[in-house]
């Protein structure tokens, strides 16, 4: 019986990949990313300068589920915007300040500490500020898009 359990355990472990964005081919598989394995890069141009992202699973540019982390420096702001799909945000580190509406209103910001979670339906207009270095994890279905309420707030339209 022990031999059967050992063989079963080893076969299950063989299907686990310790990787970031490089799952094993076939079924079953898993992606395990330890904190020291997170690879940060510059955020997409749809976000104001200064943020970093790490894609943990999937591809936010493609159709399908994905998980990514966003690292925000202290005082980082994202003007009012929305997304076309449900966005689920978990605060990993720092304080993520979130407000709802069409205009950035500091009085409307709700401070979400590490461990907090929020789920927003498609089209929910919201704005963000970080308090201290803040890391959030976004789980959604791609392609991930960000539409600013005021088009002038869109960093992709900024003139150099």
Descriptive report:
There is one protein chain. The protein is mainly beta. It has 2 domains: 1-34, no CATH class; 38-157, Jelly Rolls. It has 1 helix and 11 strands, in the order H-E-E-E-E-E-E-E-E-E-E-E. The strands form 2 sheets. Strands 3, 4, 5, 6, 7, 8, 9, 10 and 11 form a 9-stranded antiparallel β-sheet that branches. It is globular and about 45 Å long. Residues 1-24 have low confidence and may be disordered.
Helix content: under 10%
Instruction: Tell me the strand percentage band.
Output: 35-45%
Number of strands: 11
Specify the number of helices: 1
Largest sheet: 9 strands, antiparallel
Our measurement of the CA-to-CA distance between the termini, rounded to an integer number of angstroms, reads 69 Å
Per CATH, what is the topology of the largest domain?
Jelly Rolls
Q: How much is the radius of gyration in Å? A: 19 Å
Mean pLDDT: 86
Which stretches of 5+ consecutive residues score pLDDT under 50?
Answer: 1-24
Fourth-tier CATH superfamily name of the largest domain: Jelly Rolls
Could you state the order of secondary-structure elements as H and E?
Answer: HEEEEEEEEEEE
The number of domains: 2
